[in-house]
Every structure is written in structure tokens, then in C-alpha cells.
Amino acid sequence: MKDYYTLPEVAKLANRVPQTIYLHMKQGKIRGTKKGWYWRFSKEEVHQYLVAIGEVDSYENGQ
Domain limits of the chain? Predict the structure, then answer.
């Protein structure tokens, strides 16, 4: 995995549309950092998010 992911990359990994990722950000399910015009998500945050929504079995298996 990379160190940081963009919003479209997170959406693709999570099998969701970007609008769903925005919603989950508002709900506090995933945290991102705004860098200029773009959102960035840390590797650890993306991994925890994927585990929480059931896209990977565990934190260790997704690395």
C-alpha cells in the first residue's frame, strides 16, 4: 500500500462511490486531510476504514 491515498483511490478500494466516502467523513468513519484542492488519507486510516466497513478481514491481512 502507498503512504497516502486520494479520495477516488479510497472509493475504489472500498468499492464505494466518492460521495459515500464524503458521507463517511462527515459521520467520522474516516478522517482525511485537505491538501490544496485534494483530500488525502493516510495508509493506516484507509486500512482501519476498510476493516470497519468489512472490505478486508483484519488490519494485518490487508497490508
Answer: 4-41
